[in-house]
Design a protein that fits this description.
The chain is mainly α and 105 residues long. It contains 4 helices and no strands.
Length: 105
């Protein structure tokens, strides 16, 4: 269950990271509210997951999910670069996330 909670926390990290773009420097009220709520829930879920997962593993997986997801959403929503080296690098992060899960048993 901790891994599921951690994955949800990672998805919410993507949400608040992308939300930052839509807040336009926190000048737009509703996008700002949604971003802050996503951030708070993401941190809370990360803390819950850390009750039974090693801190280094949980944090690395959370950051990895957020980094890969945010980069992919940036490509889809904002036309960020999709050059091959960037995609390979994101794949390496995914490999690291899987490796941390496997190493945890």
């Amino acid at each position: 269950m901790s891994w599921l909670i951690l994955c949800l926390a990672g998805v919410l990290e993507i949400s608040w990271a992308i939300g930052l773009k839509y807040t336009e420097g926190f000048t737009r009220f509703w996008p700002s509210v949604a971003t802050v709520v996503s951030l708070l829930v993401s941190f809370a879920l990360l803390g819950i997951a850390m009750r039974s997962l090693p801190v280094g593993t949980a944090y690395a997986v959370w950051v990895g999910i957020g980094a890969v997801g945010t980069a992919l959403m940036g490509m889809l929503l904002f036309g960020d670069s999709t050059e091959p080296l960037r995609l390979v690098s994101l794949g390496l992060i995914c490999s690291g996330i899987v490796g941390l899960k496997l190493a945890h048993g």
